[in-house]
Amino acid sequence: MKFFIDTANLEQIKEAQDLGVLDGVTTNPSLMAKEGISGDQKVTDHYKAICAIVDGDVSAEVISTDFENIIKEGEALAKLDPKIVVKVPMIKDGIKAIKYFSSKGIRTNCTLIFSAGQALLAAKAGATYVSPFLGRLDDIGQDGLQLIEDIRLIFDNYGYETEILAASIRGPLHIINCAKLGADVMTGPLSSILGLLKHPLTDNGLATFLADHKKAAEANA
Ligand code: E4P
């Protein structure tokens, strides 16, 4: 399973990269705004800064919602760095744009996927990734994990190469369950990735090992 971090915060991206398990980054306009990034030049510089840190794919989302401008924006983003994957919303013009980008060899991430039908359509258009937002489905009382399972079944039935990028991850258990269901990638906050480290028995076990080692060293001194 590939691990992406879902943030535009450079410090957190560095921390995840330093851990040695990072495969990429996803951003969105809200995450960019949270870091105070706006305006063409600042946005461009920020994507370049992310690409300089990360050894992997970097999803950069278009703001346009009409075909012509999605293409214009997406082509400009793709030119910034070979790591850039153009993130396109699941709308009619978005699907047309994904088809176009795929014919030009530009990789895409179809975002805001909330149904299996949307994922199927994006895969047919040639999306590199589809991003089902499981946390947001859970938030409204629907079953986000069921959506991951449904998309996995459909993609496997037809051999679609589009990767399932489980998004809107809320915690370590989401990551584990997505891995069990065969999601290709997960994107989540640093806290969810670091949450995988934790188990009280590990902490207790390590404390005992170190205490026993110290006792033995003192006895032999
Ligand atoms: C995916 O690429 C999105 O950026 C993200 O996962 C949305 O998650 P949220 O529901 O935590 O905002």
Automatic annotation (TrEMBL):
Cytoplasm as UniProt keyword: yes
A GO MF label: aldehyde-lyase activity
Protein family according to the UniProt entry: Belongs to the transaldolase family. Type 3B subfamily.
Alphabetical list of Gene3D superfamilies matching this protein: Aldolase class I (3.20.20.70)
The reaction(s) this protein catalyses: D-sedoheptulose 7-phosphate + D-glyceraldehyde 3-phosphate = D-erythrose 4-phosphate + beta-D-fructose 6-phosphate
Main location as per UniProt: cytoplasm
Entry-linked Pfam families: TAL_FSA (PF00923)
GO cellular component term, pick one: cytoplasm
EC numbers: 2.2.1.2
Keyword annotations: Cytoplasm, Pentose shunt, Schiff base, Transferase
Pathway(s) this gene product operates in, as recorded in its UniProt entry: Carbohydrate degradation; pentose phosphate pathway; D-glyceraldehyde 3-phosphate and beta-D-fructose 6-phosphate from D-ribose 5-phosphate and D-xylulose 5-phosphate (non-oxidative stage): step 2/3
Organism in which the protein naturally occurs: Pedobacter antarcticus 4BY
Name of the protein in its database record: Probable transaldolase
Subcellular compartments: Cytoplasm
Biological-process GO terms, alphabetical: carbohydrate metabolic process; ketone catabolic process; pentose-phosphate shunt
Role, per record: Transaldolase is important for the balance of metabolites in the pentose-phosphate pathway.
